[in-house]
């Protein structure tokens, strides 16, 4: 049996090491045994503690001979393919964004920063042919000056930023910064593309703006309509004054004419005995059924013989 075979068979020993270090309740099933090098085998066990799904305990064992006792090199908790891990580390310099610097913070440039070049070789054609002393005079005593790459990067950043021509306020402006009286010119190679806004009422006051940028505070803006105060219409719902509603005229209903023979006058008694009795004419309509009218007409004919005297025998 080789040393590697002996170490691969030492699974109980590797489990005992993990249980002693982490506890029996957090050590799961044996996952694998990997041969890392000659005389070096790593045993992996499933990690059961909450929040470590996909992680595993890994124990590295070594031995000098196949009949020797294994030795523990290290014990680590490693993430697997399905483990939840923190994002990749981002260097501090790469995490800084514009506006992150505060009072007392420093941010030195990189040693090989392509945005800067020595003052005696600034990169411009007019400086390349000059000597060191003349270049330092043009640099104003500065040791480092902006390179051509740094100037182009700044110009592209300003063009794409809030002071560029692609913003919503520039698209709606009637004029551009190129023709605005509040624009201050820049010196140097970028003077034909950018300027500085000097309008205290503009959004970009004191900032570098593209010549094709613009806003509503242009020096040539004129009002297209009168600014006089317009009289507002009456409110639809008046909540200040009282509503005056005209009361409608009373409607007089004429009584319907009735037959004279169907009208009867009857006194109306008032419920209050203290008040005088007032006779009220009431119209009473008596409806007569057809059968009653027929019997009333036939009654006189039936009673007629009773009113006449009986004939005597002498008349016969």
Helix content, binned percent: 10-25%
Q: In one word, what is the shape? A: flat
CA radius of gyration is 57 Å
Q: How are the strands of the largest sheet arranged? A: 1-2-3-4
CATH level 3 topology of the domain at 3-79? Nuclear Transport Factor 2, Chain: A
Terminal residue distance: 175 Å
Name the CATH class of the domain at 3-79: Alpha Beta
Describe this structure in words.
- By secondary structure, this protein is of the alpha+beta class.
- 22% of the residues lie in helices and 16% in strands.
- It has 8 helices and 9 strands.
- The chain starts with a helix and ends in a 9-residue tail after the last helix.
Summarize the structure.
With 316 residues, the protein is of the alpha+beta class. It has eight helices and nine strands.
SSE layout and pairing:
Blueprint: H1 3-8, H2 11-22, E1 27-37, E2 40-47, E3 55-62, E4 71-79, H3 92-95, E5 116-118, H4 125-128, H5 132-138, E6 144-146, H6 148-160, H7 168-171, E7 183-185, E8 194-197, E9 208-210, H8 290-307
Antiparallel strand pairs: 1-2, 2-3, 3-4, 5-6, 7-8, 8-9
Biased composition (Acidic residues): 257-280, 304-316
Protein name: DUF3027 domain-containing protein
Organism: Aeromicrobium alkaliterrae
Give structural attributes.
single chain; alpha+beta; Nuclear Transport Factor 2, Chain: A; four-stranded antiparallel β-sheet; three-stranded antiparallel β-sheet
């Amino acid at each position: 049996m080789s040393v590697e075979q002996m170490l691969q068979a030492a699974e109980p020993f590797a489990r005992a090491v993990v249980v002693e270090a982490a506890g029996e309740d957090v050590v799961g099933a044996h996952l694998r045994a990997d041969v890392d090098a000659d005389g070096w085998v790593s045993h992996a066990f499933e990690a059961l503690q909450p929040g470590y799904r996909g992680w595993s305990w890994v124990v590295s064992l070594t031995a000098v001979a196949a009949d020797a006792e294994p030795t523990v090199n290290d014990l680590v908790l490693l993430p697997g393919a399905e483990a939840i891990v923190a994002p990749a580390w981002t260097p501090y310099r790469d995490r800084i964004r514009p506006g992150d610097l505060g009072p007392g913070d420093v941010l030195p440039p990189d040693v090989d920063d392509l945005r800067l070049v020595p003052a005696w070789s600034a990169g411009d054609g007019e400086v390349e042919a000059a000597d060191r002393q003349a270049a330092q005079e043009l640099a104003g005593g500065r040791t480092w000056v902006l390179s051509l790459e740094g100037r182009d990067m700044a110009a592209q950043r300003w063009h794409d930023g809030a002071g560029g021509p692609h913003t919503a306020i520039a698209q709606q402006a009637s004029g551009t910064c190129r023709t605005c009286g509040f624009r201050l010119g820049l010196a140097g190679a970028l003077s034909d593309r950018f300027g500085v806004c000097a309008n205290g009422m503009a959004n970009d006051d004191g900032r570098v703006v593209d010549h094709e940028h613009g806003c509503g505070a242009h020096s040539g803006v004129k009002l297209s309509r009168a600014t006089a105060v317009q009289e507002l219409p009456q409110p639809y719902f008046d909540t200040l004054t009282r509503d005056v509603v005209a009361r409608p005229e009373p409607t007089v209903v004429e009584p319907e004419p009735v037959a004279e023979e169907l009208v009867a006058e009857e006194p109306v008694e008032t419920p209050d005995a203290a008040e005088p009795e007032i006779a009220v004419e009431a119209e009473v309509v008596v409806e007569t059924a057809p059968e009653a009218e027929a019997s009333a007409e036939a009654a006189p004919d039936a009673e007629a013989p009773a009113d006449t005297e009986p004939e005597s025998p002498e008349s016969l």
